[in-house]
Amino acid sequence: MVDHSITTGHDRFRSNRSRREQLPEAVASYVRDLIMSSQVKPGDFLRMEPIAEALGVSSTPVREGLLALSNEGFVKLIPRRGFVAASVSQQDVRDLFWTQAQFAGELAARAASKITPADIARLESINEQFKEAVDNDVQNDITELGHAFHRLINRAAESRRLSLLLSSAVKQLPNRFYASIEGHVTATRGDHPELIEALRFRDPELARTLTENHILDGADGVIRTMRARSSWGGREKTR
């Protein structure tokens, strides 16, 4: 006989632990987007109280999230003073997108030999919703549907470890302002149908190339946005 009180308590414990683990990630994502979208400039102090208030969390997950970002190189911890935003170069941005492009391109190539007709139909449905979101300028839907489109392809590749590596890389890329990057959404409307056709005809190299180019084009959009918002004073040379 199952003691439901114990089961319920265990489920609640797991739920609370999961939420505690997710809070620092939410903080890191929020601050990372502030830095990548140039709302926070290099050298700006990142006060924990405003961040905690904006996200409705305590100071503990804020500190944990900022420490995670210091390991990623997005912020620096100055002893006895706090956290400051680190500089992000154009080469840093290109390296982040290049890393994602390599993983996602390989997953798309593997998916080309395994994807099912049902998956293709779902991709077409998602893309129709994506186009509708673009036409109506619904930014959140544009972002979510774009992620859903590529997530389905990644799952079709049936390569769990590679997908986890991709997820780790994606966490360091901008999210909330991604849909608003000038020109990228328009390009995406053409990229998605071409990628669907490459998968339908089981062409792994074309699927790889289209995916890599699609992602790398995003780097140019981010760099244009960051330059326009004065993250870089002039034409920065890549390292």
Automatic annotation (TrEMBL):
Record has DNA-binding as a keyword: yes
Region of interest (Disordered), ranges: 1-20
Presence of keyword Transcription regulation: yes
InterPro entries in the record: GntR_C, TF_FadR/GntR_C, Tscrpt_reg_HTH_GntR, WH-like_DNA-bd_sf, WH_DNA-bd_sf
Listed SMART domains: FCD, HTH_GNTR
Keywords: DNA-binding, Transcription, Transcription regulation
HTH gntR-type domain residues: 21-88
Superkingdom assignment: Bacteria
Family matches, as PANTHER family: GLUCONATE OPERON TRANSCRIPTIONAL REPRESSOR, TRANSCRIPTIONAL REGULATOR, GNTR FAMILY
Protein known as: GntR family transcriptional regulator
